[in-house]
Design goal:
456 residues; Oxidized Rhodanese, domain 1; six-stranded mixed β-sheet; MBL fold metallo-hydrolase; RibonucZ/Hydroxyglut_hydro
Length: 456
Amino acid sequence: MLFEKIKSEILAHNSYVIGSGGEAAVIDPRRDCLIYGSIAGRENMKITKIFETHKNEDYVIGSRELARPTGAEILHGAREAFGFGTGVREGETFMIGSLEIEVLETPGHTVESISLLLRDRSVSDDPLMVFTGDALFAGDVGRTDLAGEDLRREMSEMLYASLHEKILPLPDGVIVCPAHGAGSVCGGNISDREYTTIGFEKATNRLLSMEREEFVESKVNERLYEPPYFTMMRKLNREGPPLIYNLPHLRAYSAREIRFLLDKKAQIVDIRSPTSFAGGHIPGTLNIWRQGLPLYMGYYLNYEDPIVLVDDFNLDLDRVVRHFVRLGYDNIAGYLAGGFAAWFRQGEEIERAGTWSPTDLAEHLDDPSVWILDVRNVNHREEDGHIAGSHHIYVGHLEEHLAEIPEEKQIVVHCDVGFKGSLAASILEKHGFRNVTNLLGGTVGWAAANYPLLKD
């Protein structure tokens, strides 16, 4: 039996390849899908089935892209009309060699969500694994707010029923294979655990021990952020995303061309570190560090205007491009040839962002001309504590609250360490704020320097 989990970094997306008897199936494939064919080819197997556990909101699904070269059948939940594939219902079974896949309808995260129960009939009739999509994670369950606030209670009730009537009655030894791991925005607090079982989740997952009403109230009152790009993901994944065939080819732009593109509303994204960005950057550019791209590009980039990258040495840009393609940004166009050095060698104007250490901020904590802006997730602010006198606006919602920030004061932005703080500083600068400082080290450095974090 073939079983392989493919992890997509940062998005914390899990997809799976299973196979037997010369056949293979892929569950929840990503859009850059060559890896699945490579795995199947290595095992002398042909991919014949592709399963989507739900339409997904945080990345572009890869089933159409994978079906093109393989000819595999795409299967998804039948409770919502898709523009492609075949809808499946509760109890339907599919054979992949000796492996039997049984469909369990498990709505709640989305209405059409399904889980896939796997048996290896050559060994036993007992269930071996269950692919739970976004219904059940290690240490958490799926979010129920994405259908809208008016349906949140109903979706939470559906999820409770799916968990307690379909998934948890399975034998304790059944291996749980979710569509996401720790760090995904599709759950509130997914555990950093590679594998789990039904029995382990029943014993340790706090949400699973709740009675129905407590569970529903917990999910209804859960505070999670929804990036704006989720709307585009739902549309693409329901209708069928466009085929890309290969990763986009990036064009190398000269510094003069970049200056021209800025005038034409191109989206220039500086992917360097906060310290590099603070030392000097192209005016009006957005600073999203490499590892933060999948998490924050969806808040601030549109799907129409060309996207151009600025780095120091332009290393491993193929990996960066994958982040954009997985979120449907096919308008990724190019990069600054020669890196940021090419910009200042030409004598172009540069902008700088201020930086402070925790000690610098402590010395100005009572200064009325300083306005401290905390851009962390609100749950981190409440759980870890906050700096005295700080104001809170989540970095993803910053543009919606610019009027609340006093332009005449020195704005000291902070997050946990400094990366989201640099993103926030770049957004403020782009909107005309001229006295912005990023607290390097954030609350982590603040606490390490033995300064207090307050809790309400």
